[in-house]
Amino acid sequence: MSDVVVRYEPRGAVKELFQSTENEILLSGAAGTGKSVGALMYLHLACLSKPKVRALIVRKTHASLTASTLVTFREKVAKEAIAAGLLHFYGGSAQEPASYKYANGSVIVMGGLDRASRLLSTEFDLAFVDEAIEVTDEDLDTIISRLRNGVLSRQRLIMATNPGPPTHHLKQRADAGRCRLLYSTHEDNPRLYSNGEWTEYGSTYLARLDTLTGARYHRMRWGKWVAAEGLVYEGWNEGVHVIDPFQVPDSFTRWVSIDFGFTNPFTALLFAEDPDGRLYLIREWVRTRMLVEDHAVVIRDRLLSGQPRPRAIVTDHDAEDRATLERKLGMSTVAAKKTVSDGIQAVQSRLKVAGDGRPRLFVFRDALLARDPEMDAASLPVGFAEEVAGYVWAVKPGNKGGLKEEPEKANDHSADAVRYMVAERDLGGRPRVRWL
Ligand SMILES: Nc1ncnc2c1ncn2[C@@H]1O[C@H](COP(=O)(O)OP(=O)(O)OP(=O)(O)O)[C@@H](O)[C@H]1O
Ligand SMILES: [Mg+2]
Known about the structure:
It is a single chain. A hairpin with a 7-residue loop joins β18 (393-395) and β19. This protein is 33% helix and 20% strand. The protein has 2 domains: 12-187, P-loop containing nucleotide triphosphate hydrolases (Rossmann fold), CATH 3.40.50; 238-426, Nucleotidyltransferase, domain 5. The strands form 4 sheets. Strands 3-4-5-2-6-7-1-8 form an 8-stranded mixed sheet, with helices on both faces. The protein is globular, with a radius of gyration of 23 Å. The chain has 16 helices and 19 strands. By secondary structure, the protein is an alpha/beta fold. It has helices at 12-19, 35-49, 62-77, 79-83, 116-119, 137-145, 169-175, 200-209, 214-222, 238-241, 292-303, 319-329, 340-351, 373-377, 384-388, 413-426; strands at 24-29, 54-59, 87-90, 99-102, 107-112, 126-129, 156-161, 180-184, 193-194, 197-198, 242-243, 253-259, 266-273, 279-287, 312-315, 334-335, 361-364, 393-395, 403-407. The protein starts with 11 loop residues before the first helix and ends in a 10-residue tail after the last helix.
């Protein structure tokens, strides 16, 4: 077998990861600092250097894992070794999850916690949880309970994440000394920073992060665990409002709401309304730089695929976009009730947990049909659940500060479409919907 040279220079937090011995490590940092590459490299090298090591790569959902972390593994971490035949991909079966199998008998099993039972039916030496901010404390405890394969002398849980609010259970876990938090910085990533200066790619990348606002700016640009100040939807609670999808009966009324955009994303949301008037955001299409006529195809073939015909399509007011959409879909639309403050109040009141212990607005965990690569590259929130965590009241200009009575007009595209939907249902006084 010919020699395979792995060129990798661990720096900063990742170097610490390689040198440290704690059972639990949390790599935390701004966007693009090299956390995923570093952790994946740690697993890869462990598997290459010892036979029969069992490692695990997980994210909250299977789809998010294959779209991001596994691409990084294949393209940036194990490329040479794969080409040299030192490991190969195994697609999995009904009983067995997907994995990379190493020639020496080591294996990296991978999957989403949405398929946890199959994934966690065996034992491991190492586990890597990417975007760990998405997983619950209980998820982590389940994974830890599987860390007892005993081939490596130390069984370790490695997590990587962008920061969230300081109250987040991961930060609390680190503060309580249960795991060691290592801060990863942009200088740690040789693609961004090399020979003591920012690379061209690095300067461009940071300039893009500089355009972020609010808590997201502090988290993604500087890696700080900060709370979002002045949240519009303070009642939002991921644990309550984001739910596992269920088979939605055809008898639930379907609705679509749309916020037009081109440079900003176009968003189309499919809701189902149950007999008690609860709204479920079941599918969501978010995409930049696409023509309305092409969005119409996505709406027809993906958003509405297999779904009963929506009762109405509620849209933003742009006349030309509406006309194009109506023509391409062969369905009429209704103009959204766009008054901001009563719309926001209506959404707020739906988010409140009612007497029956449930709110009146839910989001399916798998609602997002696809991620927008450009928005991901710019670390922008994609979809309602991500937007809402950073949807804040605008700050009054000048050094007096204080908050305005309107939200900051940024990263509010799905939020607007949700508001249109709720206004349509809850704010009266609109003429009857026309049918086509
Ligand atoms: N040690 C390294 N050597 C060369 N390139 C690297 C290294 N680490 C990271 N990179 C490059 O930087 C990119 C971003 O790295 P990575 O995906 O690990 O960042 P991250 O911190 O996980 O980002 P995010 O916060 O978005 O999850 C990689 O795709 C890779 O091209
Ligand atoms: Mg990452």
